[in-house]
Amino acid sequence: MLDNPLAPPWLIRPGDANALESPLWPATAQRTPSGELAIGGVSASRLAADYGTPLYVVDEADARARAARTREAFVSAFAAHGSSATVYYASKALLTTEVARWMVEAGLRLDVASGGELAVALAAGVDPALLGLHGNNKSLAEIDRAVAAGVGTIVLDSLEEVERVADAAQRHDRTQSVRLRINSGVHAHTHEYLATAREDQKFGIPLADASDAVGAIRARPSLRFLGLHSHIGSQIFRLDGFLEAARRLLAVHAELLAGGDVPELNLGGGFGIAYVVGDAPPAIEDIATGLAEAVAGVCRELSIPMPAVAVEPGRTIVGPAGVTLYEVGTTKDVAVALDDGGSAVRRYVSVDGGMSDNARPALYGADYSVRLASRSSAVDPVLVRLAGKHCESGDIVVQADWLPGDVAAGDLVAVPATGAYCFSLASNYNYLVRPAVVAVRDGTARTLVRRETEHDLLRRDTGYNPIDQGVSE
Ligand SMILES: *Cc1c(COP(=O)(O)O)cnc(C)c1O
Predict the structure, then answer these.
(1) pTM strictly above 0.85
(2) Bridge partners of 334?
(3) For the domain 30-59+320-458, what is the CATH code?
(4) Would you tell me which of 62, 335, 342, 460 could form a disulfide with 321, CB atoms 3.0–4.6 Å apart?
């Protein structure tokens, strides 16, 4: 019997376990004539030999194209209703100086959520006017630095921040544009959304307090109020949660118009991508059109002018453009008892990384997929679990997928859709060095962030003397 009762119901045994299914893989991913995976025209074995594994590989052309396509989708969808749209790239998804420049070159602005992210964006040479600063607990130093640098907008997350940012702007003799983050009571998951009076979470201020907060903003001449902001969650496939949040925000937005200008509405990010076969996220054009129609409809009902709209996607822009390469070490067939008294075998394929380079399965129970990368194989597929090398049984990269049954030590495997929230969430657990990030394009690879060395691991340790210890670079 070739099927395996341990496979989750959605995981169909593939006819061809070498196939690179759309839309999981970057645009330029393909099999070479010899059967290897290549991305951006560079083979997996070449990348592994030059940069080591694990390795984050980013399809540069794909990331740039997704950024441009997202901007175009929102600009044209809102132009069709006589309005305009601004797209911010949520940089926490994947931020290096070079990625920041790709986004700006594609016409996007950039959201940062900490002093560190701000520092990277500034180091990239991004015009500070294109930056938005987020965060529910910005330090006074972060606020001061952002205002001094001239960031375009700051998203205020609490009443205290109204005064903190106003004071900083006054000190620097600037008028700081601000948005106000609202806790809309709408929280969306992939398949449903939850709407309450106030969601039990740390971000934003309740809708009911928005009017007072905006009054406080308008009372400070050093602040310029742009509009309300809402971000309802991540990896969302359905539009209804966004529409409900927009409806709630626009009702308050309409009331605020009585007291002055409200030029904008920011609907956040959180659009979903495919991680496994069967995931069918909507096209970005359909998201943009759906949001534009809904905002236009509500504005007609409320008899208010349509505001300019801003959105902040991260995952949809870089997630599908990235792939992680690993080398297989050990494989084990583990017999698993079934409820019906029988048993089945799960093959554990262990790789040279794990939760330190991809925390999402351990953190959120996220699902991923895997394919052989250094070769193809016609051997019948077996159900595998791709495990890492950390000292945790929850250190799993891919819960379940099918790989050719001859998968063995020394093979390279590739996990798609790792462009977002993998490098960003990486750690040095077990003192593993963090992988390099390379961009591939037109047959060449370039380092965006080099691989760490043991020296990097030890350099903050005050007992470390690099002169007399044999640490490898
Ligand atoms: C994380 C975040 C985003 C981006 O979310 P994605 O799921 O990557 O699109 C946008 N806005 C805010 C406020 C966020 O915290």
Answers:
(1) yes
(2) 346
(3) 2.40.37.10
(4) 62
